[in-house]
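User: My collaborator sent over this chain with a note saying "see what the structure looks like." That's all I know about it. Can you take a look?
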Amino acid sequence: MVRSLLRPGSDTTGSQKEHLEDPLFTRSIGRALDVLSAFHKSEQPLSLSEIAQSAQIDRSAAQRIVHTLRRLGYIRRDEHGRGFLPDIRILDHTLDYLRLNPLVRRATPVLLELRRNVRERVDLSLFDDLRVVYAARMQSKRETFHATLVGHSVPTYCSSGGRAILSQLESSEVDDIIDRSDRTPLTPRTLTEPATIRDKVAEARDKGYALTLEEILIGEIAIGVALPGPDGKPAGAIHLAGSLSDWKPEDFVTRFAPLISEAAMDITR
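Assistant: Without extra context I'll predict from the sequence alone. Here is the result:
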């Protein structure tokens, strides 16, 4: 479960090959970012050999890059000496992204008020092709550690916010995202058949919101509404999630669909 939820579709390994013909592309910077990306799916400190293998570079190059990033505060030694971990300077860039993102700035006060009213989990996600990435998380008391973290991501094709975003795209774009997605089910109830996913996207287009039942987490019901960017195309979504032990689906929709839709309109205005 954690493997699929961390960063689906975000593997940057071998990114050098995609840019070899770009005369402005700086390969050394690309390799350094590949080294940092080695930690995306890791559950523990990484050795130099593991970093080198993930970044597809030799161990000597990995050693030089890791040393440089350690000196700059982006990588640190694990306190038990078992390998390397990301360091605190990375959070400076996370802060820069969030505070300078106009959608996050506009959405935050609206989401805080929504969370006070609904007393269920409220999230803001940003659209990143095959995944949506959480930029704000206002959790309920039931949440697990991973579910509280900004930067966590879920697949676009099977999440409530992701399907709401898909409902605002052209059919050809929807088909392309579905076709390129790794549709390995996250739960026994994850919908993976392209035709079924398209039907759910069409349903979201008609209703103005997407509803998912236990497709990301067992026992979870979620509503998602898309948020447009400056160009009118979907840039993100609001997710509102609750527990099926507390709510019948029809009651959840009746209670929260109008509230989340109103919040989305407030953010857009």
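A starting point for your reply to your collaborator: Residues 101-268 form a domain with the Beta-Lactamase fold (CATH 3.30.450.40).
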